[in-house]
Amino acid sequence: MKDSQPVRTKPVGIVAAVAALLIAVGGGVTWWTLSSRRSGEPEVIAPIPSERSRQTPEPIPVPLPEAEQPQTIPVPTPEAEQPTTAPVPTPEAEQPGTIAEPVETTVEIYQLEEQNGQIAWVPQPIQLEENNSSAVLEVAFEQLLAQQSTEKRFSEIPPNTQILSVQAESDQVYIDLSPDFTQGGGSASMIGRLGQVIYTATSLNPDAKVWISVGGQPLEILGGEGLEVPQPATRKNFEEEFLGSW
């Protein structure tokens, strides 16, 4: 049997209106929720790369800090390494025409010679490449002691006599002989050897004063006959003292 109660049907227009209202309300709530979230968080918008930015960017030169910038001041070469422009002089020995010629000095050694029955002191000149007076006289005495007697010339200085030292200062000459100088012979021999020493020592300066010593001691008496030797001895006082008795 059919239900006797009638079925109520809602109009379609009302239903559509209610659905639209619900959709509108829901959309508003969603919009409000999204808006509230967006207001609290910053909006991030990704930049859209342009055509130029898609290409490889060219490096932009960044200036270095002042302390790191390269210095443009030229660094000087150390003095020892700097090239010299001055001409390098040739050593004196290699320069043409600048070699110094040796200085020659003439000195005389005296030997004895018999002349008309008398004995004379005869000079014999010697050339030496030396200009130091002490050195010149030392060589002169060495050659005097080395001279051999000849038929005409001879020496009264004993052959074993040695020159211990010779020193020339201004107008003074100091000579030190070995003790052999005083050995053997009479007064004539003593005068002869003393004259040889005095004349040879004053050959560079005839007015020089000669101080004679034997073995480091001043020579005051020569020979067993007691021949007194003046100190200092000069050519003048020797001739005054001894040539009269010679």
Tell me what you see in this structure.
The structure is a single chain. By secondary structure, the protein is of the alpha+beta class. Helices cover 27% and strands 20% of the residues. The chain has four helices and nine strands, in the order αββαβββαββββα. The chain has helices at 12-40, 133-146, 187-201, 235-242, and strands at residues 105-115, 118-128, 153-154, 163-169, 172-177, 209-214, 217-218, 221-222, 227-228. The strands form three sheets. The chain has a four-stranded mixed sheet with strand order 4-5-6-7, covered by helices on one side. It has a three-stranded antiparallel sheet with strand order 2-1-3. The chain is globular. The chain starts with 11 loop residues before the first helix and ends with a helix.
**SSE order:** HEEHEEEHEEEEH
Shape: globular
What's the rounded overall pLDDT mean? 76
* Structural class determined from secondary elements: alpha+beta
Largest sheet properties: 4 strands, mixed
Unreliable sequence segments: 1-10, 29-34, 39-50
Oligomerization state: single chain
The number of helices is 4
Q: Compute the gyration radius: what is it?
A: 65 Å
Distance between the termini: 209 Å
Beta percentage is 15-25%
Fraction of residues in helix: 25-40%
